[in-house]
Amino acid sequence: MKRLVVVSNRVADPGCAQALGGLAVCILDALRKRGGLWFGWNGEIVPDEAEPETTSVTFDDLTFATTPLTEREYRDYYLGFANAALWPVHHYRLDLARFAQEAIDGYRRVNDRFAETLAPMLKPNDLVWAHDYHLIPLGAGLRARGVRNRIGFFLHIPFPPPDVLVAMPEHEWLMSALVDYDLIGFQTRTDQANFCRFMCDFMGGEMIGPDVLRIGAREVTASVFPVGIDVDSFAAMAESPSAAKRIERLHRAGEPRINVIGVDRLDYTKGLPDRLRSFKRLLELYPQNCKAVTLMQIAPPTREDVQAYADIRHELEALSGEINGQFGDFDWTPVRYLHRRVDRDTLAALYRGSQVGLVTPLRDGMNLVAKEYVVAQDANNPGVLVLSRFAGAAEDLQEALIVNPYDADEVANAMQKAIQMPFAERKERHAALLERVRERDAYHWMDGFLRALAGCRVPMAA
Ligand code: GDG
């Protein structure tokens, strides 16, 4: 089996990969099995004057090679271009995108530095797998340094329609860099179709097979590999005696009789203000829910150095305060909003103790919370998933109640339907969802991608 080399913006700390969740665990597993190298940022930021050094630690056949970012790299590459330009553009939010030349230059420089550091570590037969929007030009950087290995790229976030993408300065440079990968993986058919349309309409590409594009002298395979979760370990967490104790405590707290749960990084793509407005509509349209239903929203902080994230936080605090002030009572708080990270076992217990899982992003690559909620349910008395049609997960999870997150009344009606759903229907929908989530778990995603990458034709000479 070929050695696997994973490159991602952040490298998981092997000590706390469990806390990071399914994907990190599953990638670590593959690296251990095949022997491998994981390369990327270690999360540290050093002063600009410092020379960022790469350090390696090896356990058995697995090496972690990590480097810090300088303050300037962090500002320009990570905050400036990746998170203030690429992230909003890829989530169809041109209104929030900020384009600055220093940021684009910083992004180019860090990708170049990563390629320069990684190239000499590669062996001829390694399979190289780069992850996500931070590293779009990494493959091109490696090719420029003579790397002939098979190199794959997986985009965890959506690929926007061409008309949105072309509004981004330097999109041609960025997209032409993708052509140096052998395999590009997307979460959904929509993302794959947007990408192929862009390559054909704007970059002179042509489809020469269902998933294969020819662009100039290069052939690139663009396929769909929906990300999944590690089903067995998450189910075990949700079914554990400690989870049962936590659920009991949740119910003993007196309120609520019915619990609706939302779990999202505090990100504007997750549609949190719209979700709160929908919950408010639920209380207005169906006042019998007052004193009976509580929305528990876990929203840990993220990317707080980007302005749009500070804005969304204020909006959310104002809205939850408004709803609690208007509808709450001495013995009932309609919205319980926690702006902090909770541990993974607690999450599993909260999902299991909630009759409704509310996953309503405005746009999302996949959304693993939807899958976690399904897996955490008690199959003999499952809750109901209300899912945005704009989450990648909706392509597969059609037995959820699929909603338009921009339409507060529609989401409120779906919540009400979920609350009142007869037992037989709940069970039937849940069984279908669970089967799908189980079928397409994290291992299925990873094996599918790596098999396709290994099967790609050896890159042509430049
Ligand atoms: C990107 C794409 C795609 C959340 N709060 C806490 C916590 N979480 C965990 C969840 C879940 C993960 O974080 C979030 O994953 P999502 O998929 O929902 O969203 P992103 O972070 O935006 O991930 C997304 C994903 O990449 C994978 O390809 O699905 O579309 O945007 O696992 O449970 N975990 C803990 N405490 C929290 O407070 N422990």
CATH fold-level assignment of the largest domain:
Rossmann fold
CATH architecture of the largest domain: 3-Layer(aba) Sandwich
The mean pLDDT is 93
Q: What do we call the CATH homologous superfamily of the largest domain? A: Glycogen Phosphorylase B
Q: Output the radius of gyration.
A: 23 Å
Bound molecules: GDP-alpha-D-glucose
Shape: globular
Uncertain runs = none
The amount of beta strand, in percent, is 15-25%
Strand order of the largest sheet: 3-4-2-1-5-6-7-10-9-8
Q: What top-tier CATH class of the largest domain fits best?
A: Alpha Beta
Q: Main beta sheet, described?
A: 10 strands, mixed
Number of helices: 17
Helix proportion = 40-55%
* First and last CA, distance: 27 Å
| Number of self-contained structural domains | 2
The helix/strand class is alpha/beta
Protein name: Trehalose-6-phosphate synthase
Pfam families: Glyco_transf_20 (PF00982)
GO molecular function, one term: alpha,alpha-trehalose-phosphate synthase (UDP-forming) activity
Family: Belongs to the glycosyltransferase 20 family.
Description of the molecule:
The chain is globular. It contains 17 helices and 16 strands. Helices cover 45% and strands 19% of the residues. It has 462 residues and is α/β, with parallel strands linked by helices. It has a ten-stranded mixed β-sheet, with helices on both faces. It has a six-stranded parallel β-sheet with strand order 13-12-11-14-15-16, with helices on both faces. Bound molecules: GDP-alpha-D-glucose (GDG). GDP-alpha-D-glucose binds next to helix 13 and helix 14.
